[in-house]
Amino acid sequence: MESTYEYECLLSILVENQPSILTRLVGLLTRRGFIIESLVVGSTEYDSLSRILIVLPGNLRIIGQVTRQLYKLFPVVKVYNLTHVPSITRELILFKLLVDENEREKILEITEIFNATVVDCTNKTITIEVTGDSEKIVAMEQMIHQFGMLEKVRTGKIGLSKESIASGQLYTIHRDRLRRKMVTTHIVELENKLYL
Q: What integer pLDDT is reported at residue 194 of this predicted model?
């Protein structure tokens, strides 16, 4: 039975900081045939937890399978599906272009239009940083493609749900306390298991 990929899915996974968690997580998904398009790991507001953001093609059934598989890993605390939730997503791309005097002005105009930043400039090269959603990144790539591309590097997608829209309530200190209490309780339970 062949899987049909209907759309791009974004999962935000809260995990404990363990040396092998990333290897185990990627191994689990690839062994079961899931395609990972993008993977980003970063710190969180909790010292003992990290957040992994995975972009993969899929549909509702595939995301359900992925979520069930992820919860089989002991260090996984919570899996958030940001695919259909109002969220803020960002990517970053760096371009290093080979330019002459005539092209430099055109590139600076494009940079200004896309609200990009020139991070390095020499007589023959210019390096541009663009931060934004996927559509902005692709549009900038199309505009810059006509110039001599020396190097290009693009990060994976990161994202957070919009707190004021996702649950229909405004962000409150009370809700923050509940969230922190849930994670802190989980951490205390794990520490008790590890040290007893």
A: 53
At 114 the pLDDT is 93
Residue 18 corresponds to which amino acid? Q
DSSP 33: T
Band (175; pLDDT cuts 50, 70, 90): low
Instruction: Report the pLDDT averaged over residues 73-95.
Output: 88
Which residue is associated with the tokens 């259909």? 84
- 120, 156, 125, 127: which is closest to 41 by C-alpha? 156
Model pLDDT, residue 118: 95
Distance, CA of 54 to chain centre: 6
The C-alpha atoms of residue 80 and residue 100 are separated, in whole angstroms, by: 47
Amino acid code (one letter) for 94: L
User: Cβ–Cβ contacts within 10 Å for residue 134, how many?
Assistant: 14
Distance, in Å, from the CA atom of 194 to the CA atom of 172, rounded to the nearest integer, reads 34
Q: Which of 59, 71, 56 lies closest to 25, judged by CA?
A: 71
Q: Is 195 helix (H, G, I), strand (E, B) or coil?
A: helix
Distance separating alpha carbons of residues 7 and 114, to the nearest angstrom: 26
